[in-house]
Design a protein that fits this description.
The structure is a homodimer of 335-residue chains. The first copy, chain A, is mainly alpha-helical and 335 residues long. The first copy, chain A, has two domains: 2-20 and 171-312, Orthogonal Bundle (Cytochrome Bc1 Complex, Chain D, domain 2); 30-167, Cytochrome c-like domain (Cytochrome Bc1 Complex, Chain D, domain 2). Chain A is 33% helix and 4% strand. The longest helix of chain A is centred in the middle third of the chain and has 14 residues, at 189-202. Chains A and B meet through loops of A and loops of B.
């Protein structure tokens, strides 16, 4: 994964109507997407049958779990807040620390994380799938050239199907989107003021681009930033912002200490609580914290309100989906 | 709740084409059902935001969690296996021990059970709902005469909406249903033999009626039976069948010791593991255990196979559903 730093991007500060970043790979065929949706919702992919991808990345909500950290098998808590799965296909790297280049790589991680889905290894996941006849048939349809029988199913097929389902999770037509298309009534006055403020205050020096998560970069190139840029404020302690060193925990490069993938603003109003550790419960407080820690500015409450109004206008329309039907484990139980 | 005993029903032993037991109450208006669906899927109805009704009664699967017991907040395990929510509207009492007369009464229980959803009390549930503007609007639409503002929402409205959604969860057109309608190819030879066996062996003395859960009874009148009828077999110890005293735990009447609501056979093949404690992992073993403990019979393996084939033919078609969209907790988090 390459790291892009802020200064080299100073020429592309913008906020605008740029088209949604195209998912890096095609959404695949329908059978694959439908299979991926089932796997995404299937708690049998966890060691005790209680946790699915959707448990922490709830697509019926904002694509996260609205918790400071996620709860995996046996009531175990992770240390970070789930990023949203909505529009995740537009992110050039995955996880808060960008440790996965692709949605495929990301999808493999939680399965075997002992505090998330807790499976012993990927072979154990595949062994489960091989015992569910409905899944075997669906893998054959989704990968007709590669999967002729249950023995041909691999974790890469699993990840490919889940990732292609995730690439369909795109929200559109937020009030902001409609405004930029010419409907000047789509935003209220506060949101319009907030839109100007996020530029003048400096927020969009990082939260730029159509996904408000940085410039369009090739898959595998992450847009990482320091947080806090201005350490030492009361917020550091109050919200425990410094302890988790972010990307440094992956790379062990000193330059990566306390750097993080810049998260999207899309649907930010429906994905509280905020930051990598979910320590901030409300959007207005998150705005204040960011202004102070990243730009060394103290915003007036009217400014905070306007910026919040703008951020609320970035909530898109969530497309309707058919509820998946999980293939049965006929006449037996894994648990 | 009245108790119906076996002998008084000897005249209505049958297995046949009787219409599906009509839900006791109307499915209500569409707004109420849609609201109930959202509440059913919403983990914010639990104390830490991790457990929804659907966590243990997974409608994307067989309406249960395919586990011996369910896992609630903080990784706590209950003592019983989740009954299926599919076709639960056709049951005349709810829970394994029939302690709730209606789906409405049932829906209120897990919310405040400390090892299930863990809410302090029903007021805490309503306080959450009142802070979610999208829900307030939906309660107004679902109960236009009763709910004019958030202050009018009660736990009875919650329960009514959830129960009316559950009443829509009906499976139809199982191979058995199609066979009884005249399609003689819908069942294979083993299933046809099994259909005869469940009568001749005696299973249908309890698993009778269109829901294979007993005779049609008014709501609130449970069809309870002793289990085991013939105690002392090796199975008692092997599967720990006797310790949980079932309905006695509710009524403290000696006559209710180790009695249970007779569960439905509909979709039984997709709701392993089996029995109140989910101690039996496979359907064929469940058939053997029941024959021995309830009828003092040891079945030949061919008989078991035929009965299993018949039970598999009771898996119906699960209707397509639209995935609910949960109203947002805008700009803030409960957790």
């Amino acid at each position: 994964m390459k790291k892009i730093n802020l200064l080299s991007l100073s020429s592309i500060l913008f906020i605008g109507t740029m088209a949604f970043v195209a998912p890096a790979q095609s959404a695949g065929n329908l059978a694959k997407v439908e299979l991926g949706k089932k796997l995404f919702f299937d708690p049998r992919m966890s060691v005790d049958g209680t946790i699915s991808c959707n448990s922490c990345h709830n697509v019926m909500a904002g694509g996260d779990d609205n918790r400071p950290n996620s709860v995996g098998v046996n009531g175990q808590h992770g240390g970070r807040s789930s990023p949203t799965v909505w529009n995740s296909g537009a992110m050039s790297v995955q996880f808060w620390d960008g440790r996965a280049n692709t949605l495929e790589d990301q999808a493999k991680g939680p399965l075997t994380n002992p505090i998330e889905m807790g499976m012993k290894d990927h072979a154990a996941v595949i062994a489960r799938i091989q015992q569910i006849p409905g899944y075997v048939e669906e893998f054959k349809k989704a990968f007709p050239k590669e999967v002729k029988s249950e023995k041909d199913i691999t974790i890469d097929h699993f990840a490919s199907a889940v990732a292609d389902y995730e690439r369909t999770l795109i929200t559109k037509d937020s009030p902001y989107d409609l405004y930029m298309k010419g409907n000047k009534k789509a935003l209220n006055a506060a949101a319009v003021r907030g839109m100007a403020l996020v530029q003048s205050v400096g927020c969009t020096s990082c939260h730029m681009g159509s996904n408000f998560a940085g410039p369009a970069l090739p898959v595998g190139s992450g847009f990482f930033q320091k947080f806090p840029v201005y350490p030492g404020s009361d917020f550091d302690k109050k919200y425990d912002l410094v302890k988790d060193q972010g990307r440094f925990e992956v790379t062990k490069n000193a330059a990566d200490k306390n750097t993080w993938r810049v998260p999207t603003w899309k649907n930010v109003a429906v994905t509280a609580p905020y930051f990598h550790n979910g320590s901030v419960k409300t959007l207005d407080e998150a705005v204040k914290v960011m202004a102070k820690t990243q730009l060394n500015k103290e915003l007036k409450s009217e400014e905070v309100n306007d910026i919040v109004a703008f951020l609320q206008s970035l909530t898109g329309k969530f497309p309707e989906q058919k509820m998946p039907r999980l293939p049965a484990t006929e006449g037996k139980s894994f648990f």
